[in-house]
């Protein structure tokens, strides 16, 4: 997980909701093949745009409370939080270009 640190149910509020920067949360699990395909794209985006957006991963197997709180029914899902509020959601494995387009306002 090189450039993308993990958050947990216990650290989510502090690391994501109270962040001064927008935060993109990658909800994933080890058994999820599309999540594994998405992971290198998230790593690239973090390396390229980490100055504007913080990128974090949340393992839904180990941390079920936060996904339930935000209505995550299937993964992968990316959620962007700005000033503690959910600003946008990207469901399913997407291309780098599609993710950048969805995040364009915040980059």
Automatic annotation (TrEMBL):
<keyword id="KW-0249">Electron transport</keyword>
<dbReference type="GO" id="GO:0005829">
    <property type="term" value="C:cytosol"/>
</dbReference>
<feature type="site" description="Deprotonates C-terminal active site Cys">
    <location>
        <position position="26"/>
    </location>
</feature>
<feature type="site" description="Contributes to redox potential value">
    <location>
        <position position="34"/>
    </location>
</feature>
<comment type="similarity">
    <text>Belongs to the thioredoxin family.</text>
</comment>
<feature type="active site" description="Nucleophile">
    <location>
        <position position="35"/>
    </location>
</feature>
<protein>
    <recommendedName>
        <fullName>Thioredoxin</fullName>
    </recommendedName>
</protein>
<dbReference type="InterPro" id="IPR036249">
    <property type="entry name" value="Thioredoxin-like_sf"/>
</dbReference>
<keyword id="KW-0813">Transport</keyword>
<feature type="domain" description="Thioredoxin">
    <location>
        <begin position="1"/>
        <end position="107"/>
    </location>
</feature>
<keyword id="KW-0676">Redox-active center</keyword>
<dbReference type="InterPro" id="IPR017937">
    <property type="entry name" value="Thioredoxin_CS"/>
</dbReference>
<dbReference type="InterPro" id="IPR013766">
    <property type="entry name" value="Thioredoxin_domain"/>
</dbReference>
<dbReference type="GO" id="GO:0015035">
    <property type="term" value="F:protein-disulfide reductase activity"/>
</dbReference>
<dbReference type="Pfam" id="PF00085">
    <property type="entry name" value="Thioredoxin"/>
</dbReference>
<dbReference type="InterPro" id="IPR005746">
    <property type="entry name" value="Thioredoxin"/>
</dbReference>
<dbReference type="GO" id="GO:0045454">
    <property type="term" value="P:cell redox homeostasis"/>
</dbReference>
<keyword id="KW-1015">Disulfide bond</keyword>
<feature type="active site" description="Nucleophile">
    <location>
        <position position="32"/>
    </location>
</feature>
<feature type="site" description="Contributes to redox potential value">
    <location>
        <position position="33"/>
    </location>
</feature>
<feature type="disulfide bond" description="Redox-active">
    <location>
        <begin position="32"/>
        <end position="35"/>
    </location>
</feature>
């Amino acid at each position: 997980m090189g450039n993308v640190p993990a958050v947990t149910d216990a650290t989510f509020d502090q690391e994501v909701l109270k962040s001064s920067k927008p935060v993109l949360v990658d909800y994933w699990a080890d058994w999820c093949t599309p999540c594994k395909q998405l992971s290198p794209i998230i790593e690239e985006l973090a390396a390229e745009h980490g100055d504007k957006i913080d990128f974090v991963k949340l393992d839904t197997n180990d941390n079920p409370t936060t996904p339930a709180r935000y209505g995550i029914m299937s993964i992968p899902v990316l959620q962007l939080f700005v000033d503690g509020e959910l600003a946008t959601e990207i469901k399913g494995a997407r291309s780098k270009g599609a993710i950048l387009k969805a995040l364009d306002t915040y980059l």
